[in-house]
Batch of 4 targets.
Target 1
Amino acid sequence: MQLKSGLFARSASSRPAPPGCTGTPNRTTSSLNVCAAAYSMALATMPAAAGCASRQASRSVNRTGVMAAAGFSSAPAKPEQAAEVQVVLHELSEVKRSLDVTVPAATVRKYFDKTVNEMRGSVGDMPGFRKDKIPLSIIIQQCGGPEKFKQLCIEEVLNAAMPIAMGQGIKGVQFIPDSEKITSNIQQLEKSFDPAKSLSFTVEFDRAPPLKWLKSYRDVQVSISDTGNFSTDTAAVNDLVRELLQEQGHQSVVRDRGLQKGDTAIVDLKFMLEGSKLPLPGLSADRARVDTNIDPLGVAKNLIGATAGEVRHFKISLPDDYRIELWQGATCDVEVKLRELFSWSLPQFNDEFVKEHHGQQFSSAEDLFKSLLGTTAMQRVKALDEQLGEVVKNAVVDCLEPMPLPDSLVFELGSTLYRGAMLDMVEKKVATPEEVDKLATDAMLEEYVKKRRDYIQQQLMFNMAVEDIWNAEKMQLDAKDLQDEVAMRKQEYEAAKAEYEETAMTEHVGEQMKHVQVLEWLKDHVSSSNQVTTIPWAPESA
């Protein structure tokens, strides 16, 4: 699946190396004055050349016209490198810092020279000139003109200065990787760039807020609400039995009346987010079957009385626990065209029916019914366990002092959750990769993050708490479990012919396993300590 617009990962530099360039400086300029003079003269006299076959600037420009640093290392600078830049740290807020970075003129010149020599290597042989004597004006022309050449020179300086500046600036700060961005205006940098002068720019980055516990996570009290009882389980099994009977039953076309309870209709179904015209995958389908006896979303009740060929429009609000996460709680405009209408003639559910159609597994109708009842009850127990996990996470977060969270963290996790929700749709076969690809837009992602911001922040705070709990409870990962999980993940990537970096994958899998282990420990702890209250299910009308 191709995710659009670079929404789910910050791109590293995509600049190709210039043809024939080894990256080794070839210092031919004897003095700074000569270099600066030649540069100024070349820029003043050279028209912009069309088509640059050399490198493109390795920066991503955001919507406000500022450069976002991509792929820079934050490793500490070596002593000799640290002297190449001056850095002043400023506190902008509790979670945001900025660095004023100044690159001395000598360092600017060094990377100007490097750019020139790399471009000489990419120009190739030129009649009448030794490779190291090709005029700067020709190099600029081959690069694409003065503006392109300036961009390449600035790029070299920034690529060299950023890791050094970040290495100095983040000392003693809980730096959030990949949150750094150059906020200086690129046009202004280009306008003021001079290889004989220093270059100054500003970098902003986010820091992780400190974690402060107001009370112990061991003392949390939680409550969960049962989602049904024996009566609701029995009703669900009756629906399953009806589906089994329909497999062996007969349908008759209805032409002399509209849809009524007990019928089945074949419809063209379109669910669209309110105000949108894009049909939602997993909900929209041509020639879909609508059963008036099993109508969890309320489609059938809006079609009662409809006849073949009739089109109806109505709104439906999807439940908050709808099986497709992306559409949970959404209000949809629904368009339904009723194509065909059928009534059912069903066999009786008795021992003879079971022996004939399910005799290899069950000997009587009672046995089959009890089996379905047990499965339904277990599904309800599983849902309760999932609910317990959510309320425990919320209770742990309530033990923490409220803290501001950087937008970069919120957006990063929101992007990950959004991507996961779309991939889940593909894995569950409720949507094709092509259908899901249409959802990978800036607008859809931003709406997803906006709508779920509180939930995302809760998840982030719990993720931060996991490390504290892991260390406090002296938990450890089982080495074999980690090895097995990584091996399985590698197989999945290789089967999909996807690239991966094994060390990063191992770290990621390890963090996921720690998260699961901490959550399971918390659930076991509150359950064994009688810190869970289960509220019995009650009908909505009660």
Target 2
Amino acid sequence: NNTQSKDDMSAKEAKEKGRDAYKGEKWEDAIEHFTASLTQEPSDAPCLALRSSAYQKLGNLEKALEDANASVALNPDYARGHFRKACVYSVMKESEMEIQAYETGLNNCPDDKSLQRGLEIARRVQTASTKASHAANTSMATLEAANSRSMKANSSKDISSFVTQTKWNLELQMRALQSKLDLVKELGQMTANAKLDFLYNLLLEDSGASEAIALDKFQAALKTTSSNLPFADEVNGALETVKAPSAGSDPNAAVTKLKRDEFQTYCQQLVTAMNTTVNDFSEFVVYQVKFGSNTASDTTEMERTAGVSSTMADKKKNILNDPRMMALFVMFDKDADSTVDFKEVAIGLYKLSNNMEDSAKNAAALLLMMDQNDERVLTYETFARLIMSVAAASNLTFDELADQLTLALTDKSELSEEVMNEIIMVEENLEKIQQAQAENNERKKTMDALSYSRTQKLFDLWDANGDGSIDFQELLRGIRKYLKASNLAANIVEAEKDALMIMGHDKDSNQSLDKEEFAYAMANYAESIQKPLHELIDFMVVVGSKETSKVEEFEMTYSEMNNVTMSKGYQKSAFKRSSLGIIVDLGEGDEDEEEEDDW
């Protein structure tokens, strides 16, 4: 009963209304309903976690943290409460507090997968954003560039070319040396545990692994990198003495891959056996990984043993696999969030040209061209396309542009206030252009669908009660008939998913689609299932014009009564048949959990 007042609702009913509003991205309504539920049952920890998430979506982080803390205080064994607390700290950019929240949660809920994954990701992000990590990546990038110039100098056909390439080589080597010194300085300021964390991430990156380090490769790498050193016997002896961590409850079954905690324990045992310190051991391995050879292209023994070196043929095969492209992406990505935004592109191009007005405009133009999905950021693949576009526009080869960008991006000079203001101004204009493009695209799709006469015919067929709008039940019946006729899906669950996506275009939130909303929704639906719009509508009209048998009518009615629970708060993007990059719900599946997308 939609007219039921909040005062008349039970706590459970108010909570369900809040959940529905949350799914419909109506954060204020969700908070209002959750508050009504909590007024009756203030000790409902899951409801507090739900309201915390809604507050976070609204940007009220103070209230979100307050509710997350209250949820954990009421039930320390409630994993989602700890998870919510960590998510709020993540948005606040409080990495230490985020990690602490995950660790506290795992102390109470040691087997919770969401907390385990969250802690690992938080640790990696924290390490990747350190100055030491930036210095390590910069040193490798500049060494690659220096080696490229050295090769060009050696193949020069005249003295002038040799001198030019050699000057570039020397300057890049100086930058690489400075980055190495920066890394040494940053490592010296880290705690022992922070160094082990940094080392673990470094080895994961160099081995191409995503979750754990292969124990045998780590041992082989230690042997190889120390083989020519006076203390090689000491290292080998420690490796033979220290046993690998046991796997599970069987003390005789050793692990073959080391996760973070296992890696730290194993390294500490090696440190004891070698009679050294965690600080010195960590720095030794880092130096061997990053500084094990004079040039970046000559793979270090540590990397070679781990099997990460790639042939020149592999590098040429695909620019995405080029380590220099990867290094550029890392240098552009200042906040280490695995994407490059407008500001980062503009600053990178400015350092190349020293003209912020042109750089900002070029960055905006490139972002508009590359950002086809209107995500306002570039992934690694789209970033690579951007760099190749810049190279072509500058009449440079990729190697030449990479050298120049590497040199420019390692320049530590601060940007002036005037330059930063120029970036902000162009960024605001970029947002207006992107918004205008989105609105124009919507109008174009709507007019295309409306101008086709059969769209009106389909609307009239599905508008069973003739009230000039299509409600969810009418929409569901039409979609189910289409799916059944096209042999895509006959069950109510699949039809409901598609109907939810289409009903997500209900702009005025009146739980029905008018003609314009319906036209735009069908245009997007056709796009999502990769069907020509007119062909799709033609087929739907034919199917919709056929009389429904009594058996089919009973099946639909019975299914709707028993399975469909359409509410005010439908999901606006519940289902995309052909979409890449859908955010996966990592919740535990508990009936009290919200649909979580904080990952």
Target 3
Amino acid sequence: KPKGRDRCCQRLLSCVKLRSVDELHKVFTFLVAAFLANSFFVAGKNVGTVLFLSVVGPEHLTTVIFTSGLCSIAFGQAFSALSRSRTTTQVNGVLCMGGAALTTFFFLGATMLPQKLPNEGGSSLWWGVLLLYFGIYISEDIMTMFVAMQCASVAQSYFSVSDAKRLFGKVTLGNSLAAMSVGIVIGDIAKAIGTVQLLMVQSFLLLASALVNCYIANAYADQATGGKKKRRRAGGGDSSSEEPWWRNWLVLAMGLWSFTVIFTKTMYEYQYNVVAAKTLTAQEMVTITGYLYAGAGIASTLINISGTDVCLATFGMRGAILATPLALLVASAAILTNLSIETTFVGRLVDLSLRWSLNNTVRTVLWIAVPAQQAATAKPWIEGTVKKMGQAFNAAVISVALLLAGGNLGVLSVLSVAFCAVLFACCIRVYDLYLHSMWFRVKRRELQHTMFEHLPDDSHIRDAIKEKLIYGDTVAQLDILLHMGENFSDEDWEEFVKRFYERQTAVQLAVMKLGRKQPKRVKDTFLLELMDKPTIDASVLQVAILSCGDRKLHGTVASLQMHLGHIRPTVRAAAAVSILK
């Protein structure tokens, strides 16, 4: 290619922070896959609920939510068994093709049977229509979740850890684009072709996803990283795995967090669906719900781009942890004060926007504080089973609460406010548990240095670690120097080095070794001063002498010549090497 085109291409790639055209092609391919999967998700969350409410009615909504929760647990077990012996693309292919066939089946059933529940209850036709739309709701509820989840699993298995850190933000842009675009146009599509016909649109989306999935499996076969994990040798690895995860208070608090967020989300959804079904037509409900997902996509994108960083920089990790329960508490109180389609719309918008952005980021950071083996065991329960069982539990709670309250939807807002208040109180404690767990992992040397790239820029955390570095015991100082020494600011480091001669020899040695890697950490004047200290340990002196040679400090030649007569041969050898340099 002409050199001018090459330079132009490199400039474009550098603007989007990509390294090559091949990497651009790969990111675009996975972005398209994410767009198709999330388009199916947004359409399904809209169509399944609207069809059920317009045909069956809101009186059976709690029953179908409860049934869907139980079915999702059973489907999750079957899905787990399917995933054990197959690659992520194979599982995704089966899921997409099976989902397309199932959606087509429901479309044919909806076109052949009446689109209104017959008046004669108990007849075979009545049961047929009821079961069909129960199946549509449950299928949409389960398939949307697993298709979106498996698409993410495919992406995770085709990117290395370092590439994922750089590129996943661009890949997940497909999710936000799908939420915005599909949310805006789905109402117009429903008006043009009808709500039932949206089922076939979903089938085509799944077929397109299957084609992209097949292309990924063939084009990037040599880049797949998803394989069986090697077992740790006995006596190595994460020693905290000896403790079961249910004894970790941070994990239990995150379980309560998951349950409460799902509880509140279910309450918002139920109130919104019932109020909307009474005041809107099916097509109007499709349009309004589409705008809901579009608004959530836009809001979550803005939060991901700048809101999360601003929240962490301004309020620290504690503020980021408390943001979700506080926002849900305010939204629940607003719905309690004025139950309407507007307030329930805003409540769902707040819930979706935070769950797709800040809430996910904070929970990802919190999981880093959990020992690796505990996290691997606990995550499927906390992020999977708790949510699925919570959905079934919530349906039962809604039924009982409405029965006791005579059908008054306001009682659900009272429950939401109560649960959010409990979550807010719990999250106040979560921050202290997080700090304690992080420091516990650092002391046991269970965290690698690269993992600290994921941690937020929280001044409270930085101050706590700085205090441990300056005033902690020898083991604490060595652990911090080993894992985080390179990340300390110049000001914090200078304050620590001021008390260099009061430190233990092992700590002095760690400081000098880090100074060899990062010369700006240990100044030349400090090395010159150290060379003339008669009481300094020989091991520390040896590293200081080698640092002088690395930096070619000609002013130290006289001192180096003097150390050629040192009693320790290692010091004499280091002095000779530095003089030669």
Target 4
Amino acid sequence: REREREREREMQVVSLNSTRSLNATASRTSRLGYRRLRGSRAALASDVFLPLVLRTQLSHHGNLSSSSSSSSSSSKCYSSSPSQAETQTAPTEQKELGVRVRFAPSPTGNLHVGGARTALYNYLYAEKFKNLAAETSSGGGGGASFVLRVEDTDKARSTKESEDAVLRDLKWLGLHWDEGPFRQSERGDLYKARAEELLEKNFAYKCFCTDEEITEMKEKAADEGKPPIYSGKWAHATEEECNEELAKGKTYAVRFRVPKDELVTIDDSIRGEVTWNTNTLGDFIIMRSDGSPVYNFCVAVDDADMQMTHVVRAEEHLPNTLRQVLIYNALGLKPPKFAHCSLILAPDRSKLSKRHGATSVGEFKEEGYLSEALMNYLALLGWNDGTEQEMFSKDDLIEKFSLERITKSAAIFDKQKLNWMNSQYIRQLETDALAKMLVDLWVEKGFLADAEAADTSVIMGKFVEIFQEALITLNQSIDEFDTLLDYPLSSTLESKKAKKCIEGGLFDVAKYIVDSYFISGELKELAENNPEAFKDWMKAAGKEMGKKGKDLFLPMRICMTGCMQGPDVGEQVFLVNKAESIIKSDTFVTFEERMNVLKKAVEDNN
């Protein structure tokens, strides 16, 4: 009793001296102390039971050792945030540069834009601190790590194909990891060892409840208007009672023993202080009866084992944090710093889903978006640098990114804004770089027959010159070129818009073109061998017919292209002739076929 009174006096002194370093909740509970769980057959190691904030304070003052005896005082609140005392004792550079973050996808589908943003924020944070380390030390780049961990504990839904797709999409975005990929399915021994540790320390217990019993408990709780919290049937079973069940060949799950009526607080980098009461949570399973670990247990064990300093993830994981912090503290491990990002919503503020269009990185890649544009756009879904700037290179993002600038409010995925941004990135590309991208794309889509043909580079150079400013996505290039290859003369002549042009003498121009192609052969020679001279030929034709301006150029456009608007007529004629041998399109109408269609239209008009 005398030793216990002495320990209480020591803790009171520490609490008074450390008021500034405790959060608001902890400061109201200066009587923090050791606690012991009901049903425990022996006092447990005090450094495991002690709330994290106070444990850190005591260790700083030299008042805590692994052999300390337990006290009868009960704790009411603890936090996952590091104390001021701990922060002040570490060298500034070491504290700021020793950053380890992770992205932990589940391979049960494609990489969603929400997951991609999470990966991006973790990547940017790690790269930022790598650069800081390189600037402040000769070691260079050793101040941070971006770890990739595949959370594949869901055996029924996890697939190798999905994992490969996720890794492929991360690489396409330029998010290269430093360590991994580590797979939870390959770390079973670690989880079993940690579960055994919790069993030995009485932080967990064996539960022999059947599925039917669990269902009955949930139904009873629902009937009584209570949350479906486990009743604790096996929480206080004796060793003999457990052995009796084992002798019958029954299997058991391992449940974590949740402390009663305690407050768990985290200092979230985005959301500030978040507090839960443990009474809202029943004893939860950490190992299933088939021996497989449960998600929250794996996450806590892995983050601790991999020494994660920061966990940046989506807001939907916030409820999981309570379980994970309890596991950290029970194992005597230091929780990381948490940052929970708001969700990405559709324009109607509903959850972003397939009905809103593309939602995965792979889909946007297939639709012809540039990885740099998608990265830039995703970064702005919940973060800004405090200015009006919208266009950021990867290096810009790395330099300016910070967790403090991530907003609490939900981000809205605006496809039109992404389209605009992608078009800006396409405009900024060097013409040769864009031409190569389009050649690769056209070959992949089966639109271009021969990437090495002499006319390919000629066609692509001219196409980029004409259309680069107009492209929104790379895939649009195929649609644009396909439109040039078509010849919708009949539908155009039947339209109301063409009526005035027809009345103004369109068929006079059409007859001149047909005669020049089939009788004199001048236009045929020009189209096949000297398309650059088309403008000169058109001007000479105007003089000969006594036409100029709109009375000449619009009829010429309709007769040559079948459309009332589009790129320069001469350039279209050039592309159509060059494309004949190397472009594969169902809509392709060659120049000679166009002239035959035009000839028939002239004859029908007469």
